[in-house]
Amino acid sequence: xxxxxxxxxxxxxxxxxxxxxxxxxxxxxxxxxxxxxxxxxxxxxxxxxxxxxxxxxxxxxxxxxxxxxxxxxxxxxxxxxxxxxxxxxxxxxxxxxxxxxx
Length: 102
Fold this sequence. Notes:
By secondary structure, the protein is mostly beta strands. The protein is 0% helix and 64% strand. The N and C termini lie close together (5 Å). The model has no long low-confidence stretch (mean pLDDT 96).
């Protein structure tokens, strides 16, 4: 079984122009984390998420009350420590992680 541990989430540029972003993160389609964050904000997640399968497809979305949620990007973390960037739909987020196999 593999485990991806999220470290720090940083909002370099938020997607919404009105109010803070309502962010949620999925791994292989399953929502694992959510938060409200504004430009310049940081969140220390420091939580491990086990998953099954060959890869962890990490997607970040910005939730919208009206219409479809905005996909901010999809990343596949590599073994070890790293940083994922989510920059679609005029947003810019970074998320540090560690991927381990047990």
